């Protein structure tokens, strides 16, 4: 399928773009059903769920993520219809795929709002897409676009936003501020099996962080740390946690910090609560000047990246052994 390009290659041709995201609640009574959907079969303790429920309720039961998907879609400049479906909340992927079938879509590119490789951020979305297409008669073929953590568009957006955050620090501290990149923690077992050879989640994050850090200032010290740990306490997850790390930096004499949530493409609840509420309160207590860089969001370079990904030769699907599912726990 597709026309020949001037170079004689077959250009991929999609008749729609499907944005696939995590989903989030938009009213108080939807918070618990959403959370139960997210953690089904995953052994997340009830206490953790109630704690996270309180984070959402503090913001009126509204997760920022759905509106951010709408904003991203509104900013897109593509010449095919754009659809949007979520893993965990309305609009659910399966309903969207049904709509696409009804509209006669045959072959769609899927942009997943998750930059890195791991079960949660890659394979689980592939499973979501497969489940939705299997459930819908006449479902379109859906081609997942490649991971974009090291794409120049994503790196440029994060670089701009990191520079802007530095500008918000008191002038005399700017040159001495440390860059602290953060990403969602995952279980160590999931990190070890991420990608084809293992370790790809952390390796991808380190790669992106190093690219952004190098653009901002070659000699500035930086770290990669983790946030938003979930799961039962006896299962080890990636560490250190961002808050523990801020305490350590402060004790070691660091004078200012820019937090860069490189693991998220928009200001998810993990960013607005775990960083803007929790980590920010800690920094205030410590007297540690801190600025949080914006996420990629609708930065024009990030938005353009999506069109560029659609124009690339069709990506090879992930090998079946990539990012395997963790053992499921009983409900
Ligand atoms: C790697 C990764 C990403 C980044 C890649 C991607 O973007 O997909 C991500 C994104 C997100 N995670 C989100 C929300 C939640 N994640 C949870 C739980 C978990 N996350 C995990 C990993 C990840 N999560 C894991 C291994 C769990 C344990 C349960 C399980 O194995 O699945 C829980 C349960 C409660 C708790 O936090 O304990 C919630 C509510 C939201 C929406 C936020 C909003 O509403 O703005 C987003 C974008
Ligand atoms: Fe999560």
From TrEMBL:
Fe-coproporphyrin III binds at residues 63, 125. This is Coproporphyrin III ferrochelatase. Keywords: Cytoplasm, Heme biosynthesis, Iron, Lyase, Metal-binding, Porphyrin biosynthesis. InterPro entries: Ferrochelatase (IPR001015), Ferrochelatase_C (IPR033644), Ferrochelatase_N (IPR033659). Its EC number is 4.99.1.9. Belongs to the ferrochelatase family. Fe(2+) binds at residues 184, 270. It comes from the Bacteria. It catalyses: Fe-coproporphyrin III + 2 H(+) = coproporphyrin III + Fe(2+). Pfam families: Ferrochelatase. It is found in: Cytoplasm. Pathway: Porphyrin-containing compound metabolism; protoheme biosynthesis. Involved in coproporphyrin-dependent heme b biosynthesis. Catalyzes the insertion of ferrous iron into coproporphyrin III to form Fe-coproporphyrin III. Transmembrane segments: none annotated. It comes from Microtetraspora malaysiensis.
